[in-house]
Amino acid sequence: MKPLHLSHFTATSCLGRGLEATLQALRERKSGLKPCDFDIVDLPTYIGEVSGLEEVQLAPALKVYDCRNNRLAQLALEQDGFADAVRTAVAKYGTERVGVFVGTSTSGILQTELAYRRRDSSSGELPHDFDYDRTQNTFSVADFTRHFFGIQGPAVAISSACSSSAKVFASARRMMEAGLIDAAVVGGVDSLCLTTLYGFNSLGLCSPQACRPFDARRDGISIGEAGAFALLEWPQGELPKDAVLLAGIGESSDAYHMSSPHPEGLGARMAMEQALGSAGLRPQDIDYINLHGTATPSNDAAEGKAVLDLFGSHTPCSSTKGLTGHTLGAAGAIEAVVSALALQHGLMPAGANTQTLDPAISLDYLLDNRKVPVRYVLSNSFGFGGTNCSLVFGRAA
Amino acid sequence: MMSKALTAYIEGIGLIGRGLPDWTIAREVLAGRMPYELQPAVVPAPQLLPPAERRRCGNIVKLTLAVSSEAVAMAQADASTLPSVFTSSHGDAENCHAICDQLATDDKLISPTRFHNSVHNAASGYWSIATRAMAPASVLCGFDASFGAGLLEAMTQVAVDGTRCLLMAIDTEGPELIKDIRPKDGLLGIALVLSPQPRPQSVARIDIGLTHEAADRFTDAVLEQLRLNIASARGLPLLRQVALGQSGRVVLDYLDGTHIAAEVTPC
């Protein structure tokens, strides 16, 4: 594929607001996870919460979109000069020539959960101030983003569970390659809610402590929330050496089970192979792999097998979910930003919380940061329903 | 037209909605060769799934499997090799309602089945599992713009990746409690198998692009109400043009101010 330039990008998670805070947490290996104290949730688990969302005020014209998820979207868009960069691109290409592709799994469902608690005690009706389509609906966060910038090009929410905001890159790239748009705002936003906390708990997938990807005693995920975005443009002129390019994309389905990965990681392997193929690279060209690494026993075992089969045991890799938590529909986007930071700063970030590596998975899993030049990174995102997406990012030089 | 056209060939069509029990009958109704009778939609049990799964899955899964099977059979395609695009204005809203209802009580321990069925890609996941399709699956939501969003995604897969693609635009009824939800009445699912090249089973060539022109409306009041009330039904004017078996141009509803123009040429 023709590489695309991530001309601007940003991330906000429990690690902090924007790139500087994110990079500092990666350098210090400082996890943002804490014991769950979200809303009225009573579960023995850890969460990655973005602080200060209660104070975020949506732009006056967009008040109807007010919910935790869209507040997180706006907060993320406003970091690192990202919103200004998008406005510049919209002015350059035209409002109709920019597209919006936002990944989310639960969008603003917390707003509905709260509304259901406020149902009229006699009629059972929902409160009149509840606006389903502009808060809870899956499209809401993409629609909010589109209106935030006055973009009139194609706009869509992509919701394939935990691969959602990796797959935004695939859809945006096709739309650009087809000539329908010249630039794309891609990203992922997912926020804490009772549905995912109690839902993953019901599947026995929430760890009672901060998650430990690829640890021999890993016992589940820590749910986090995040918003991360990138502006995709065709490379123009001579790019600076540390410019970040989307070089390859691979997508596949497990066709195996709704909530368990293929035990041999077959779908994961197909996605990684295709990503390498579309980038024109061999496995040995990849310097670092940002793993999906949720810290469930089955995900890490299956992903570990797939990586070992394709790359052997010598490619440095880690999951950054011990730092950020599993941000579900935002995971692909935030890990794309982590990959971009790895490329620009020559930093292979180690996983956090992991103490003793699983001896059954013989990978070069990083327990300490490595400061080395990084030319190509592969980032994995896999989701419920067996949707897999692998992305290859590279430096311009 | 404000953008260059994307081309594909329709090889298979699946359709279920009120008074539209399958494509064979719907083709006659949409072309005006048969009267439109508002019979309730009947969604067959998904034979592709094992009995236990058949019982546990919601209407949205059944509708997805039914219309997709019809389209794939007509296209004489191998479902296991087809990339797919699933689009829905709100997924399984009944299931979501049940979860939110329980989370508002003291017993918040929701069932694992309810939870894994709550993901927007549940029906798409069941389709891939049932047909052993390991090809990519794109899963989208555009609220009322869901059909247009799905059509654009499928057309770019065909045009850019050069693959055949199965488009599934699926909407089922939501809980009465949520007033804004679509569909307002009934359910509707459309599946299309699209191909980059013409083949003997192709029924029409479509060339689509974005436009500011107003979306076409049905002159039949009942069909027009259906189009407005169900996001996937916004695709029915395209199917009507195919059903007529004549060359023509239709404008489909998409986002406010941005619509999709489609030139339809019978094969």
Question: Which key phrases capture this entry?
Answer:
heterodimer, A: 397 residues, alpha/beta, Peroxisomal Thiolase, Chain A, domain 1, 12-stranded mixed sheet, 3-stranded mixed sheet, 32% helix, 21% strand, B: 267 residues, alpha+beta, 8-stranded mixed sheet, 9 helices, acyltransferase activity (chain B)
Q: Would you spell out the secondary-structure blueprint of this structure?
A:
The complex is a heterodimer of chains A (about 400) and B (about 270).
Chain A: E1 4-13, E2 16-17, H1 18-28, E3 34-35, E4 46-48, H2 68-77, H3 82-93, E5 98-103, H4 109-117, H5 132-135, H6 140-149, E6 155-158, H7 164-177, E7 183-190, H8 194-202, E8 223-224, E9 226-233, E10 244-253, H9 266-279, E11 288-290, H10 297-311, E12 316-318, H11 321-324, H12 331-345, E13 347-348, E14 364-365, E15 370-371, E16 376-383, E17 387-395
Parallel strand pairs in A: 4-8, 5-6, 5-7, 11-12, 11-16, 12-14
Antiparallel strand pairs in A: 1-2, 1-9, 1-10, 3-4, 7-9, 10-17, 13-15, 16-17
Chain B: E1 6-17, H1 23-30, H2 51-56, H3 59-75, E2 84-87, H4 93-103, H5 112-116, H6 122-131, E3 137-141, H7 146-161, E4 165-171, E5 188-195, E6 204-211, H8 221-229, H9 236-244, E7 248-255, E8 258-266
Parallel strand pairs in B: 2-3, 2-4
Antiparallel strand pairs in B: 1-5, 1-6, 4-5, 6-8, 7-8
Helix pairs in contact in B: 1-9, 3-6
GO molecular function (chain B): acyltransferase activity
Pfam family, one (chain B): Ketoacyl-synt_2
InterPro entries (chain B): Ketoacyl_synth_N, Thiolase-like
